[in-house]
Amino acid sequence: MSELGIILLILCIGQIHSTYGQECPSTQELQISLRQAQKLLASHEASYLQSLRSLKRKISQLQNSTARMPSRPGDASCPKLDTPVNGRKLGKVLLPGHEVHFLCDPGYELVGSETRQCKDTLTWSGQQAVCKERNECASSPCANGGSCTDEVNGFTCVCARGWAGPTCQSPTPTFFATTTNISASTSGAAAATTFPLTTLLPFVQPSKCSQVQGTTHCSCEAGYTISGRDTSICTDIDECEVFHNGPAGRLCVHACVNTPGGYRCSCPAGYQVSRDGRSCRDIDECATRQNNCTRDRLCVNTYGGFQCVKVECPRTRNVTYAKTSPTRCERNPCPVDNKACSQAPVSISYHHMSVVSNLSAPRVLFRVSALRMIGDALRFAVLESRGRRHFSIQRSDRQTGELLLLSPIQGPDTLEVEVEMSELEKRELIGRYITKITFFISQYEF
Predict the structure, then answer these.
(1) Which among 101, 133, 165 is the end of a domain?
(2) How many CB atoms lie within 10 A of CB 147?
């Protein structure tokens, strides 16, 4: 029965039907109309009661959730964390949900939690961070019987006889040449003999010879060898060619440069030679301010360089986002009747990671976790993006998803992956959260 029919029915009962120029229905018709009105009212009442029950259930869930959270003043924060000795602390905001990161100076290693988060209970997650001096000798870096002495941010090797180099990895053979002196004047006597060189080059030296009872013995300094049949000349040994791929491994991780009597290792731009003299260590241009990123961009250190990244919130129709941190955007409240807005992601987080080329797989590269849940289930998925075939998602617990690297990636390259975390209530979607991860793959394997 339409609303106009109900109004007409009421007017006829009140005997004011003459205004509309219509006749009142019969008694039977009135009874039928009244039953229809009763059904309509009952239907509206049932719908209202169902909506009211649903609203009460949601309010009860929110009350239970907030009851488990300790009450705190609006400006409450976690206690201040101390900066570890011989280290640094990154992050100044002490409010719930925010993180503080710790780094150690070169030569020190972190013991404790690298990242600690302020929890809703106004306590910090993880363990206190301490920077302890790294024992450079713990890995036994001195090869071939060499003894190691630990130093601050380094070590020193004392090599056994016959070995040289920063880690005693290079053999230093001494080459001898013996000739017989048949001169009767020197028979039975010992005398020193010098073989002069008209021109001495950095890679050529005169040998050191001595005569004992008519026999001449010639030797060269470490890193040189007798040149052919001429025992008076010592030529440099090219360690980079002779020993570069020896039993103990490569002399240099990157490039080997031969020098008079020895060699040295070199590294590509953006790296520096490590204390062991053969490895390459990345230079953090962001921490040492060796970058040209402007204030509106985020400096991301990569292996061998850096990237200046600008994080911007998405602009889409019917949905607006606000930047709540340098790497996070959150959705503004949606109008009640805007379904497209309510289905858009609640938040979008941006992360940037540096990865060496051909990193071994499978391995976990990133974790996505929910701090608190309103629904009864979480679902994780990797969305379609460039590099999707290299990654997969797996669960580590009820509230955490792990991004898994399936196969090595040859650099240099840049890949972007989007991880979606969906929150469900009785299998119905109540919120979506997107994490965008950009991987900068180095062209080197170190």
Answers:
(1) 133
(2) 12
